[in-house]
Design goal:
Layout lengths: L6 H6 L13 H10 L16 E5 L3 E7 L8 E5 L3 E8 L18 E8 L10 E5 L2 E7 L16
């Protein structure tokens, strides 16, 4: 079986462009099939890493990530004042023998991503939704505290 690096692996930088196997002919395919290494269970990459877009509006920090094929019940999102951690699992539904694959590029299994936020947010007011395979997390910024003048009382 040829295990070509997935688009997910390419996006997350877990492979270099030199690691890719571009196959253009049947002979190239046969040669590549002989030389491809199977992924090791002892690999240091036990979890995939989500790719994210993080941006701000005047009132919120927005995190977007492509998570197509993931049941919302399989997502775990932890939010603190300055960090968000997204964990989950993409289940492989079919049981296909490895020797029956020509290419296996889709990412299956556990993934996680922690994002340090550029400003403090209000975790209790955060909201997450999925639409068309895109996870959107909206994190309201903490309102800036205005300077308050404090009057000193005399306790005589």
């Amino acid at each position: 079986m040829i295990q070509k690096p997935s688009f997910f692996d390419k996006l997350t930088g877990s492979i270099s462009s030199n690691d890719e196997n571009d196959i253009t002919t049947h002979k190239d395919f046969a040669d590549a099939k002989k030389n491809i290494k199977s992924p090791s269970k002892s690999s240091t990459h036990n979890e995939g890493q989500l790719v994210v877009d993080v941006y701000q509006t005047a009132d919120e920090i927005i995190i977007k990530s492509t998570i197509a094929g993931i049941d919302p019940e399989d997502l775990d999102i932890n939010i603190g004042n300055d960090m968000v951690t997204i964990k989950g699992k993409r289940h492989k539904e079919e049981s296909i023998k490895m020797e029956d694959y020509f290419y296996q590029e889709c990412y299956w299994g556990n993934f996680a991503r922690s994002i340090i936020l550029p400003v403090d947010i209000e975790p209790d007011k955060a909201d997450a939704s999925i639409k068309n395979g895109i996870l959107t997390i909206k994190l309201p910024k903490i309102e800036k505290i205005k300077t308050k003048k404090l009057k000193v009382k005399s306790e005589d």
